[in-house]
Amino acid sequence: MPHPASRRALLGASLALLGAASTSAYGQRGRGVQPIKLALIESLSGSFANTGEAVFRNLVLATERVNARGGVPTAQGRRPLVLERYDNKGQTEESLSMLRAAIDSGCQFVLQGNSSAVAAVLIDAINKHNARDPRRRVIFLNYSAVDPILTNELCSFWHFRFDAHADMRMAALMEVLRQDAALKSIYLIGQDYSFGQAVLREARRQLAAQRPDVAIVGDELHPVGRVKDFLPYAAKIRASGAQAVLTGNWGNDLTLLVKAARDVGFGGRFYTFYGNALGAPAAIGEAGVGKVVAVADWLPNVPTPESAAFYQSFRRRFPSPRDDYVHLRMQLMIEALAQAIARARGTDPLAVARQLERADVTLAGRRGQMRPDDHQFQQPLVVGVMDRRDAPGVPFDVEGSGYGFRVVRETAAADAARPFSCSMARP
């Protein structure tokens, strides 16, 4: 259980959100309406606290949107969503403790994503809990943990992933890399855990298949969240003669890496999964124009009016440049959950899970559908290249840095889909 002080902070945050965002739902149905609790289990302190807080802001916006419509219609009336925070400090054991606390508080929906290692532990724990205590079942909604194993060998009826997994992202990124005819050498670097290992493994496979002429001149993993000085790594990258770096790094592990690369004078491209936010564009600065490539489910400069309107709505809600970290998939995830609860006419996890398997949601002109066979969300992917704000195709910058990402390729959902090996046990 959380420390009493942290529980008070958790309750205060929850009540503040509920009071601010759910007034209309309560006003219509009175004080007897019970909110639908969502438990965010994430790093809210430590090295990756910025990533957890960024997720929280996205989910606040998403839940506020649902609550502004009056909440979710159920057989008991329209019920608001309330988001509760559980700090796992980036640790798997702490995540299990927070899961127990969330279940004890009455949460039926668990949200996590900023670690595939944590996600794997949660899937196993939730499978066992739901089998042991079916009256208190919970559903796991995953917005960022992208190790492919989570919807393949470890697939679970109770787990739904709303981000494209690493192999899907790599395939979209490789479409751009494949067209870089000048590229002859590349350095692979990643975080030493399941996700980072999966990224480099798939990079080697796809490079061999699509660009056998590109030499891999470096291939290494480093500890997650523990490297404070990436200069030795950057020096090795420069000394290798690599023309580009491919990395799945995220959070401070990415920001510090690109800063170190800039400091040693590395002038090559960065092919990244997450180079479009959390300090990376500002860290690399002018040297990244035309050189930092990022793959995502969506980017602010997707060239449609609906996309621009959505992004501007986020910036109005969170106007500080340091809070500019927006992911449409998290919005689609909450919309899918609201849709499933409404179709199930309540929050029974078994009924909701069956409806989530049929999720089909659209927001800001972007549509996503859940694949019922493995619970992997299917959605378009985009690849962007860093450029100066107000350059053609770059009306919006990132985090006030003066640099944004121009969309250079879009992959349709059907083309982004990958084969799966899930053999799901169903209740």
Architecture of the largest domain in CATH?
3-Layer(aba) Sandwich
Oligomer: single chain
Strand content: 15-25%
SS-based class = alpha/beta
How many separate domains? 2
Terminus-to-terminus distance:
29 Å
Radius of gyration: 21 Å
- General shape: globular
> Which fold name corresponds to the CATH topology of the largest domain?
Rossmann fold
Largest β sheet strand count, sense and barrel closure: 7 strands, mixed
Fraction of helical residues: 40-55%
The parts where pLDDT drops under 50 for at least 5 residues are 1-30
Q: What's the CATH class of the largest domain, please?
A: Alpha Beta
Q: Give the CATH H-level superfamily of the largest domain.
A: Response regulator
Number of strands: 17
How many helical stretches? 14
Strand order of the largest sheet: 9-8-10-11-12-16-17
What topology emerges from the helices and strands here?
Elements: H1 4-21, H2 23-29, E1 36-42, H3 49-68, E2 72-74, E3 77-79, E4 81-87, H4 92-104, E5 109-112, H5 116-132, E6 139-142, E7 159-161, H6 166-178, E8 185-191, H7 194-210, E9 215-222, H8 231-239, E10 244-247, H9 252-263, E11 269-272, H10 280-284, E12 292-296, H11 305-317, H12 328-344, H13 349-356, E13 360-363, E14 366-371, E15 376-378, E16 381-388, E17 403-411, H14 413-416
Parallel strand pairs: 1-4, 1-5, 5-6, 6-7, 8-9, 8-10, 10-11, 11-12
Antiparallel strand pairs: 2-3, 12-16, 13-14, 14-15, 16-17
